[in-house]
């Protein structure tokens, strides 16, 4: 026996609604489009039938028929375990959601191959645009997406090898500020913890660290530089190695919140008085019980700005000025706990 619109597992169609209301399918379409040519009585009857049947328009199918997008925006990030990306996602979604678009999030786990697959899938699903935190320097797949008419906005890390709108943080300037604050406390043995060198933010923050030490006449001790940790456990291990050196650093500059938390755990375990400066604020930073300064910025605003850039492209507002735009958000220093001056060991260089 054939299933009806009310049978379990069957999705009611536009024709089912028309039949229930005793009108044509075109009349149902006009009601759903809020066409004022439909009488109030007919509108009421159609809407009652929609509610009774639980009808929902198939927006994806309709978009495909009309040659339009799906009403979806792809957001591709590298590490959903990092709270930074949840704030970024909220920022993007708050802007595009206000214009009727839905956000679909994909996690690459810092893999360019995963990113390539995700972007191809999103383009295949006809997303209206993509906001991406690139996982690496090989961004040919992003260039291909843009060439196929899917606007791409890069967040936190810039596009490489192709032109696209981008919104970044002042990574270099923030690192300079953080390192200067440690030097002002008298520290000269300053270590560095950061993600792999292939990551743009790590490159810029390490550059700020090196340049600031050099400007102060402090030689960079390469034993104190650790690049690679991408999570708290890795950062804790790397910081532990630094603190186990015969002449360990008296201060650590940690280039993201995962590295800062890992370093804090290592310092606690070692029971040493080590000054910490981090990049990215994080929840409960004021409760760690150690003097800590962090370079903070509005990660929600980073997402909102990326959403605005994407909407401008979708609305064609940037058509008169096709050159890609670059927005850089400033950082500000936050101090948790009272910083103390470096002891004699900190001034040994």
Automatic annotation (TrEMBL):
- Superkingdom, taxonomy of origin: Bacteria
Pfam families per the UniProt record, alphabetical: LacI (PF00356), Peripla_BP_1 (PF00532)
Q: Which PANTHER family match?
A: HTH-TYPE TRANSCRIPTIONAL REGULATOR GALS (PTHR30146:SF109), LACI-RELATED TRANSCRIPTIONAL REPRESSOR (PTHR30146)
- Which SUPFAM superfamilies does UniProt cross-reference here? lambda repressor-like DNA-binding domains (SSF47413), Periplasmic binding protein-like I (SSF53822)
The record's annotation in InterPro entries points to:
HTH_LacI, Lambda_DNA-bd_dom_sf, Peripla_BP/Lac1_sug-bd_dom, Peripla_BP_I
Q: Which organism is it from?
A: Streptomyces zhaozhouensis
GO MF annotations in UniProt: DNA-binding transcription factor activity; transcription cis-regulatory region binding
Where does the HTH lacI-type domain lie? Answer: 12-66
**Stated name of the protein:** Transcriptional regulator, LacI family
Q: Which UniProt keywords apply?
A: DNA-binding, Transcription, Transcription regulation
């Amino acid at each position: 026996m054939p299933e009806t619109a009310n049978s379990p597992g069957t999705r009611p169609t536009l024709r089912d609604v028309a039949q229930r209301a005793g009108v044509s399918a075109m009349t149902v379409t006009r009601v759903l489009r809020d066409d004022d040519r439909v009488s109030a009585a007919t509108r009421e009857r159609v809407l009652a039938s929609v509610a009774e049947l639980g009808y929902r328009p198939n927006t994806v199918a309709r978009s495909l028929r009309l040659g339009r997008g799906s009403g979806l925006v792809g957001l591709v990030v590298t590490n959903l375990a990092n709270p930074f990306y949840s704030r970024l996602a909220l920022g993007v979604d708050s802007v595009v959601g206000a214009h009727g678009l839905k956000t679909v999030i994909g996690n690459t786990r810092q893999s360019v191959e995963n990113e390539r697959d995700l972007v191809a899938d999103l383009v295949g699903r006809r997303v209206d645009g993509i906001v991406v935190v690139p996982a690496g320097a090989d961004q040919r797949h992003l260039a291909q997406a843009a060439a196929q008419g899917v606007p791409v906005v890069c967040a936190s890390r810039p596009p490489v090898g192709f032109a696209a709108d981008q919104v970044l943080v002042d990574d270099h300037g923030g690192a300079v500020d953080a390192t200067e604050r440690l030097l002002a406390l008298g520290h000269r043995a300053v270590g560095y913890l950061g993600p792999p060198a292939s990551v743009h933010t790590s490159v810029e923050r390490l550059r700020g660290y090196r340049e600031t030490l050099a400007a102060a006449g402090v030689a960079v001790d390469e034993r104190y530089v650790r690049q690679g940790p991408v999570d708290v456990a890795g950062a804790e291990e790397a910081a532990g190695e630094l603190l186990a050196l015969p002449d360990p650093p008296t201060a650590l500059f940690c280039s993201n919140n995962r590295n800062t938390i890992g370093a804090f755990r290592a310092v606690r375990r070692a029971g040493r008085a080590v000054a910490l400066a981090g990049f990215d604020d994080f929840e409960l930073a004021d409760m760690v019980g150690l003097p800590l300064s962090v370079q903070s910025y509005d990660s929600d605003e980073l997402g909102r700005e990326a959403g605005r850039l994407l909407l401008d492209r979708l609305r064609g507002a940037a058509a008169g000025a096709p050159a890609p735009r670059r927005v850089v958000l400033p950082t500000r220093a936050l101090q948790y706990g009272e910083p103390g001056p470096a002891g004699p060991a900190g001034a040994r260089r």
